[in-house]
Amino acid sequence: MSIFLLKRLLTLIATLLGASAVVFAVLEILPGNAAQMLMGPDAAPEAVQAMAEQLGLNQPAWTRYGQWLAGLLQGDMGTSYAYGSPVSGLVWERLAVTVPLAVLAMAITTALALAAGVFAASRHRRWGDVGVMGLAQIGIAIPNFWFAILLILLFSVKLQWFSAGGFPGWSEADGGGFWPALQALLLPAIALAVVQAAILARITRSAVLDVLREDFVRTARAKGLSRGAALWRHVLRNAMIPVLTVMGLQFANLLAGTIVVENVFYLPGLGRLIFQSIANRDLIVVRNCVLLLAAMVVIVNFVVDLLYAAIDPRIQASDI
Amino acid sequence: MSVRLSSHRSFWLGAVLTSLLIACALLSFAWTPGSAYEMNMDAALQPPGSRHWLGTDAFGRDVASQILVGARASIAVGLIAVGIGLAAGLALGLLASARRGWTEEIIMRLADFTFAFPALLSAIMLTAVFGAGMVNAIIAIGIFNIPTFARITRASANAIWARDYVTAARACGKSRTAITLQHVLPNIASVLIVQATIQFALAILAEAALSYLGLGTQPPQPSWGRMLSEAQTLMFQAPLLAIWPGLAIALSVLGLNLLGDGLRDLLDPRLARTR
Predict the structure, then answer these.
(1) Of A41, A72, A187, B234, which sits with the fewest C-beta atoms within 10 Å of its C-beta?
(2) In a domain, B17, yes or no
(3) What is the ipTM of this complex?
(4) In this predicted structure, what is the pLDDT of residue B272?
């Protein structure tokens, strides 16, 4: 197990290094230099030159890449051009919105998908199955940002139960608090979750159907276990492998989805920060945020791989 | 409820919706009920009626016409992005499968690596670097179709390479290229067609999201995504404006997905039985 773990960890580090190089290289070719952007189009060339020097933009690319990585290892992401404050501080602030949003959305996704998938499988080829799968088919087709707009139309414009956007903050000192903040994240999380849940429900259904055909399920039923007990105790656990794989992959989509949905609800999250920073040509912020999102995706999938072994003892390190 | 019947049903519903999408785009070249481009402030924000079937937007442009013209952007993005992904991904996947060893290892690790970047995030980054616009959006979406097609091509091609008739063909002295073209490609075509339909739907969703963020199709060219972002600012005055473009996207994606599912079941009856 330890050799397997070491191998996986090395792959993880190599992937993150590669990702950092790609992000850095892509943003190097960004037209319009940051110094020019900050000084405005009418600035004198000498002033722009001085600014570039101050920002360290005149050093060769590989030096700056090295400095960036060295800084990252010490938790220093550099200083934002546009905000003039440390990027790590900006990012932490935004993560307090994006991470709870993603976790909440994933929780809703899992609950909806498992319930719908198991229900559909237990009613295989009957009306319950056809109905739930029809709904899932529609759910997959709906763009999450449109669903977000529909939720706003219904709950904010018509019923006026929720505000149409914005985020009050987690601390009561800022005029927010735990419940108001959670309330502000609820509609965006539902918008993100419904589409993902539709995909996951289909996977869950077919995974459960596959396991239902296994001999051990027949044995469990034969020894007197009720249908429901067999389903929850034996089938679901064994059906979790494909479901978990897809959940790991979905997490990436969820993070990308937050960029769009945060824009719909004007939530001050990481996605909105990336989007604004691209508009501001605030390269340092963009590359750190993109790398951070990529790192989250890679690490989540790494954890999913480790979970396989925990769920199914038959899976040994060598199989993965 | 018989599976054959239900797959036929989803195939036909998908085919009808997809044809409708194509018909809308084609029709928009010849005729639209009003003007999708011409602004007329006197006719701004009209409710649906006989003159403007789906009403007008904040600039008095006919919404029904904009929806018809917007279908063009969706189809263009879908076709070209899937084309890029299919061409490059198919070539890489076939190469990986035919050569195995290091070539396969490198190509597949590269594909894995690309999955570390959520496609939409990368598309946002690329359109931001190279400028917002439909062409860049198409390329960005196309690039992220490549690893998907490479993976599925390699997986299906490897299964074909393991068949006895391929071993027989190799024993007869056929080259790897000849086997790839004569045996592997025809046998994996159905899988690729199904995947292409699904990627087409995903491309439409991605284009809509990029256009919603202002990074895709640029004004005055109508696109469903941007119509939604414009409608969002008018939700209190004209909530219906936020309904039509979303409905157009959802029906197109639904149609393509149903078509893909139906095709898979019809082209591969073995799969259909287990579903």
Answers:
(1) A41
(2) yes
(3) 0.85
(4) 47
